[in-house]
Amino acid sequence: MNSSKPTESELDILQVLWNHGPNSVRYVHNIINEAKDVGYTTVLKQMQIMSEKGLLSRDTSQRSHIYAASNGEQETKSGLLEKFIKNTFKGSPMQLVMKTLGDYEPSANELKEIKNLIQNLENK
What we know:
The chain is mainly alpha-helical. The chain folds into two domains: 8-69, Winged helix-like DNA-binding domain superfamily/Winged helix DNA-binding domain (Arc Repressor Mutant, subunit A); 90-124. Helix content is 65%, strand content 6%. Strand 1 and strand 2 (66-69) form a beta hairpin. Helix 2 crosses helix 3. The chain is elongated, with a radius of gyration of 18 Å. The model has no long low-confidence stretch (mean pLDDT 93).
């Protein structure tokens, strides 16, 4: 994963590109604008900065530049989660799980998935 940690607004842009594939600034702006009012030039500038930071790659072979996420969604999220656990929970994934399950009531389906995950880990 790129060493640069994406901001919240950068994650919004990355999410669009992960969900819809490589695209133009106009397309990304239109998708983001469905959820919140953001100016085109704001999205353009953010994507240019993200390209400089290595978070996005840019194809300039067409009139409308096409941007793509430099790293996959899971790779990015894993890196962010690793940093979050290290900085917030003293490197303990167990503390994160206990805090999450203590503060939020998981659905029956989520509990079933958690139990299956634990079983799979125990069977390794």
